[in-house]
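Q: Hi! First time doing this. I have a protein sequence and I read that you can turn it into a structure. Is that right? Here it is:
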Amino acid sequence: MAISLYDASIRAFLQTLGAIDGFLGKGLAHCRENGVDPEELVEARIFPDMHPLRFQIQNVFIFSVGAIEAIKNGEMRRPSERPQQNYAELQALVAEARKKLEHVTPDEINAREGAEVVQEARDTKRHFTAEAQLGANPPLASAQQGFLEAFHVESRIHDPHLERWRAQPQ
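A: Yes, that's right. Below is the predicted 3D structure, encoded as structure tokens:
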């Protein structure tokens, strides 16, 4: 049975964005209940060689909404700079991603099957089909790989050992 581009991307992105929204809410509640400033988590890293939470959340937006926009217009560019967003703004970014993706129709995405997408990063251009851009064609490709990698942090945002976050060098 074939899977549609819509099912391989939008449905998966929305499910994960819902989970992200949930754990950011739980993280905020944990901070309030324990007297922790949630802004301390924004630039926190679980491990020194890992990007901070802010970067992780921004990547989710880039590799979901950005990937879908790339499928539609044939070009994906990653931002050269990232804003310094606070915890509430990161929550709003997730809500914005959900809202944008909820308005994408199956026909919009499925009609782009086989379309070329050019991904630019630094001085490199890579050419993909829409399927490869969305990871609907093995091996797991650009958008889903970036989206999923961004979210290995999920299990740790509401870690009972939150002090580890604050103890890591920035």
